[in-house]
Amino acid sequence: MHTPYFLLDIDGVLIPFPAKDGGTPPTHVRHDVVPTGRTPDDPVTIWLDPTHGPLLMQVARRDLVIPVWCTSWRQDAATMIGPLLGIPAFPYVDLPRPRITTSHPHGYLWKRDRVAVWAKATPVAWIDDDFTHLDHEWAARRTAAGLPTLLIQPDPHVGLLPEHVARTLEWASGLPSGESVGARPQGVGKPAGAHGLAQRSRSTSYNGQ
User: Fold this and answer.
1) Cα–Cα dist 117/69, whole Å
2) How open is the CA angle 146-147-149, to the nearest 5 degrees?
3) Which DSSP symbol is given to 11?
4) What mean pLDDT do residues 167-176 have?
5) Cβ contacts of residue 100 below 8 Å, gap of 6+?
6) What's the 3-state SS for 16-80?
7) What is the pLDDT of residues 50-77, one digit of tens each?
8) What is the three-class DSSP state of 171?
9) Whole-number percent of the chain with pLDDT over 70
10) pLDDT value for 25
């Protein structure tokens, strides 16, 4: 069996959504970043938990899964968010830029159609805050068809927790082992300068992140 992919969202997972009072968790540190398509005089303010870097490195070093960004931050996840957390340039799913006003245009997460094609016959553990019951049904069908699929859905106001990572590793360690490592499917980007682990492999207006 191919080594599972570990798909990781950013908004609502690493970057929590503000609470009703506009506050963010005290564990998170403010950063002003300039995503692709923006200029330095129009930065985006984000909050990241510095403990998430070591937590994700624990996953990568176990070699049970292959970490891959699955977010509308696209290459910026690897070249901007990752470095702020002190992690190497994980590859990323090259998601489309759909013209949508909701994250569930067909009743399920808009990323899913791309992921379903991208993952092919590889098991997947996917952490995203925005799944619907249709996504969980898809995961169950995929698992029943012999392609183990785990969906983990954090509270978007809290984000990634150690227990989410522990659950992922427990799931991966229980899968049948195999000699082949999943090749990088079409539609996965590898940032310039990626090395090491990478080589192994809602704001007010919705932006699909």
Assistant:
1) 16
2) 130
3) B
4) 95
5) 110, 206, 208
6) CCCCCCCCCCCCCEEEEECCCCCCCCCCEEEEECCCHHHHHHHHHHHCCCEEEECCCCCHHHHHH
7) 999 999 999 999 999 999 999 999 999 9
8) helix
9) 84
10) 84
Cα(83)–Cα(53) distance, rounded to whole angstroms? 9
Six-digit token pair at 155? 């509270």
Distance (Å, rounded) from C-alpha 92 to C-alpha 69? 4
* Selection from 92, 62, 70 nearest residue 171 by Cα: 62
φ, ψ for residue 30 (rounded to 5)?
A: -75, 140
Give the model's pLDDT for residue 10.
98
CB 150 within 8 A of CB 127: no
Q: Are 92 and 113 in contact (CB under 8 A)?
A: no
Chain centroid to CA 201: how far?
Answer: 15
